[in-house]
Write a structure and sequence with these properties.
Strand content: 15-25%
Largest sheet: 2 strands, antiparallel
Shape: flat
Number of helices: 1
Structural class: alpha+beta
Strand order of the largest sheet: 1-2
């Protein structure tokens, strides 16, 4: 769980909901904050590559999965 509970209208719920596997522990929290730090660095690196390659895209954010098996770059581009 990444965020605390909040009220959401029934029509805004995306089903099926994902199962909560376990409560976060200290290692998870540390990994999460390390991943956030590393994602900022990855975003800056990717922005440099986009600029060097003269790509018509705007990076929005970057995020690692908790186990760091995937990195996800979100971007916008007019000609997608």
């Amino acid at each position: 769980v990444k965020f605390p509970p909040k009220d959401v209208a029934n029509e805004d719920v995306n089903l099926p909901l994902k199962e909560i596997i376990r409560v976060v522990n200290e290692e998870d929290e540390e990994q999460y904050y390390n991943n956030e730090r590393d994602a900022k660095q990855a975003l800056e690196l990717c922005k440099r590559v986009v600029k060097e390659q003269n790509l018509d895209m705007r990076l929005v954010n970057c995020e690692y999965t908790l186990d760091k098996s995937k990195v996800i770059f979100n971007f916008t581009a007019d000609d997608r």
